[in-house]
Design a protein that fits this description.
about 280 residues; seven-stranded mixed beta sheet; 7 strands; about 40% helix; about 20% strand
Length: about 280
């Protein structure tokens, strides 16, 4: 793999480790024993909202890159946020998903949309045995799961013939930030920011890759109970969300946004051509 010789390099490893350790903290939510099951369903529903709005935004941005004959490798497809819109524009998608629960939801969503041009691999991305190469390798909302970001990017390039793509959230809804400050009694200074894209950008530029970068806005709708679980999934990494705290979140949402709550977020799309 060709890389530039640089006298000075940015030390991204230390802040990456600190950010990731904060992101993967154990969740302390005790008010609902079925939270994980419900949260998985919530996640699927919000990215299905408005016919996979966020995924279609990505596909539109990549319009000049995509080709109907492309074979695509998608890493961590989740409920099909990108899989379903992409399936309409390419020949085949191969999805690598480690979670059996996520895979089951993905299968149901693919069946619902009558999509057939896919292959599913139920393995961890870092260890998955993949024999083919692909026209495009893509991952979305995935970087925070990666321990070694440089190896992740190397592996993406390893299986790409033409393009690599990263889609990553960039910023949190103001309501979530305000809830953190009011309920946790702590100033928000990026405790659960998802802006991992700039780490990847730094590494790739040091490799002399030239990236195209676009940002877009997307939204999804939550009812009151979904909203409580949504905020609890962030606050629960800093405080215990028991019935009392869940009640505070409920009162906060009723006072600030009412019901339903339309969450407005932003995401970044970065794509580049690997050097072989």
């Amino acid at each position: 793999m060709k890389r530039r010789e640089l006298k000075y390099r940015i030390n991204w490893q230390d802040p990456w480790k600190k950010m990731r350790n904060e992101r993967i903290r154990k969740l302390r939510v005790t008010y609902d024993k079925d939270l994980r099951i419900k949260s998985a369903e919530d996640f699927s529903n919000r990215y299905k909202w408005n016919d996979y709005e966020s995924g279609r935004e990505v596909v539109n941005i990549l319009g000049n890159v995509l080709n109907k004959d492309f074979e695509v490798l998608e890493i961590g497809p989740g409920p099909g946020t990108l899989t379903i819109p992409l399936s309409e524009k390419v020949r085949k998608i191969t999805c690598v998903e480690a979670s059996k629960a996520n895979l089951q939801i993905l299968k149901e969503n693919l069946k619902e949309k009558k999509i057939k041009n896919f292959e599913l691999i139920n393995e961890c991305w870092e260890k998955a045995k993949i024999e083919n190469s692909f026209d495009l390798v893509i991952c979305s909302h995935f970087l925070w799961m990666v321990e070694d970001l440089e190896k992740h990017l190397e592996r993406m390039e390893q299986f790409s013939n033409r393009y690599c793509v990263i889609v990553q959230p960039c910023g949190r809804d103001e309501v979530v930030k305000n809830a953190f400050e009011e309920i946790c009694k702590e100033r928000y200074t990026g405790q659960f920011e998802p802006d991992a894209d700039y780490f990847a950008y730094t590494i790739l530029r040091e490799w002399s890759r030239l990236l195209d970068v676009r940002y877009f806005e997307y939204s999804f709708e939550l009812n009151l109970e979904e909203g409580i679980r949504y905020i609890a999934s962030y606050l629960g990494k800093f405080i215990e969300v028991d019935e009392q705290v869940a009640g505070k979140i409920k009162n906060f949402l009723i006072a600030k946004v009412g019901e339903p709550w339309v969450v407005r977020d932003k995401a970044v799309v970065m794509w580049w051509e690997p050097e072989k």
